[in-house]
Automatic annotation (TrEMBL):
A single Gene Ontology CC term: extracellular region
PANTHER family: NEUROHYPOPHYSIAL HORMONES, N-TERMINAL DOMAIN CONTAINING PROTEIN, R-SPONDIN-3
Gene behind the chain: Rspo3
Protein name: R-spondin-3
Sequence ranges of Basic and acidic residues compositional bias: 175-220
Record flagged with keyword Signal: yes
Location(s), subcellular: Secreted
Database matches in Pfam families: Furin-like_2, TSP1_spondin
Superkingdom of origin: Eukaryota
Entry GO MF terms: heparin binding; signaling receptor binding
This protein's UniProt keywords: Disulfide bond, Glycoprotein, Heparin-binding, Repeat, Secreted, Sensory transduction, Signal, Wnt signaling pathway
Organism this protein belongs to: Crypturellus undulatus
Length: 243
């Protein structure tokens, strides 16, 4: 480092030189050496760049390089992200994962092996044949289950999710669709007839009551009215008292 020190420093430098850049940093900033060709200059940053980790000291905060296989690190011995071709495990970068673990090429980490898990079997379905539950004696019944945990690359594969077996049922005739429709039609007609019968009886009763009312009105019209007897006025002639 040249002995001459510049006074007008910029970019967070507390002291600097024209040849070596920053010599010290302002409080809370990190000092790091950057290589430009064959030359190194000092710079002051608010955080350490990728491939470096920061260490704070009473007189200076410095950025130091991570290990060669580590892309980012928390300390020199604890990596947080590995370079290409390495897998992260417990802060270390490994070319091959330990036994019992597998390499995750998506996260580039060593993770535990996950085996497939399936749910319990469902109850057996009704015995059917060609989609029908009648008209046969021997058919098939089915039960299913779901996959609740899919396996990782080295995990145990998933089992079958459905099973089928032969079944025997008491043979019964299938009700024809036309017959069922006919029965429904007959019920509808029967109900309609009963309603029609009730309506006819009600109309008949109304007609009889109306006819009786009309007969009474006609009878009252044809019968002569009784005349009232005239009121007899009392004899008010004067009595002759001369004789």
């Amino acid at each position: 480092v040249h002995s001459n020190v510049s006074q007008g420093c910029q970019g967070g430098c507390a002291t600097c030189s024209d040849y070596n850049g920053c010599l010290s940093c302002k409080p809370r900033l990190f000092f790091v050496l950057e290589r430009i060709g064959m030359k190194q200059i000092g710079v002051c940053l608010s955080s350490c760049p990728s491939g470096y980790y920061g260490t704070r000291y009473p007189d200076i905060n410095k950025c130091a390089k991570c290990k060669a296989d580590c892309d980012t690190c928390f300390t020199r011995n604890f990596c947080t992200k590995c370079k290409s071709g390495f897998y992260l495990y417990s802060g270390k970068c490994l070319e091959k994962c330990p036994d019992g673990l597998e390499a995750n090429n998506h996260t580039m980490e060593c993770t535990g092996i996950v085996h497939c898990e399936a749910s319990e079997w469902s109850p057996w379905s009704p015995c059917t044949k060609k989609g029908k539950t009648c008209g046969f004696k021997r058919g098939n019944e089915v039960r299913v289950r779901e996959i609740v945990q899919h396996p990782s690359a080295r995990g145990n594969p998933c089992p079958a999710t459905s099973e089928s077996r032969k079944c025997i049922v008491q043979r019964k005739r299938c009700q024809k669709e036309g017959k069922g429709k006919k029965n429904r039609e007959e019920k509808r007609k029967k109900s309609s007839k009963e309603e029609s019968k009730e309506t006819k009886q009600e109309n008949k009763g109304r007609a009889a009551r109306r006819q009786n009312r009309e007969q009474r009105e006609n009878k009252n019209k044809t019968q002569p009215k009784k005349r009232k007897a005239p009121n007899k006025e009392p004899n008010t002639a004067p009595i002759d008292t001369a004789h």
